[in-house]
Write a structure and sequence with these properties.
Number of strands: 2
Shape: globular
Strand content: under 5%
Strand order of the largest sheet: 1-2
Number of domains: 1
Helix content: over 70%
Oligomer: single chain
Amino acid sequence: MAELSWLVLAVVVGGLLTLDLVVFHRHAQHEGMRKAAWWSVFWVGIGLVFAVFVGFTRGSDAAFAYLTAFLIEKSLSVDNLFVFLALFTYFGIKPEFQHRVLFWGIVGALVTRGVFIVAGVALLETFHFFLYVLGALLIATGARLGLGEEGEVHPERNLVVRWASRVLPVARAHHGEKFVVRLDGVLHVTPMFLALLAIESTDVMFAVDSVPAVLAVSRDVFVVYSSNVFAVLGLRALYFVLAGALQALRFLRPALALILVLVGAKMLLADVFDVPTALSLVVVAIILAVATAASLLFPQRDSKPTAP
């Protein structure tokens, strides 16, 4: 049954990615908000349907763990859209070409998340004390996020981008949706390629926060990885829906900070008492719902200078 689960996941994800790139987004086009909203609903729906499959093959507790990890990863990914927006602005990537960068960036993220998850589970199974290391890391990350110390985005300081700019020939001008072009007989990478490198390397840093959070929910590699996959797959569509409205979610970051602190505490207290998976799901859902509702009910007012 375990092999069948992985086969189903590979077929579903591979098929959806192929349809997305080859059929629905074969040509560069600007993703309108309405179309992106429908795509976002579609990806969330696929993720929820897969929870039914997880429950059918692995039991209700695994399904609750999947949904909890899915919610945590999805909410952390929404916060990361601030960084994607800054990267696209810095590299001057037009809206109609952003989907292509995000697509390949997410494909790379699926690989790196898999490596992080397998390594994390192996460390937890081998070294019990690593549970407390991850718990402390999550609490520290949550505290930093809650205090607004996440830092500004500086793409020009990205070590991977700086290395690529020094080692590889870089075309100064944009060349549509191409990552590599031939100029005067020499292959050059484009700003699109540098933007892709920036997103890939930045996602590695995101994984340092998100993977420990979902490992606090479950150590089942399939449950954790599949929840990550479906949460990340919908990130492209969600970006185009929320890119212009992220500032409106003013209470999202405090909510994420609270979630990270709670799951960190859950890890630290794992040997004292076990928190039911269903309860974790309910708590995470309530925190996110309250944060969203509060953001809509109490929008941040723009401060205007007082007239003399």
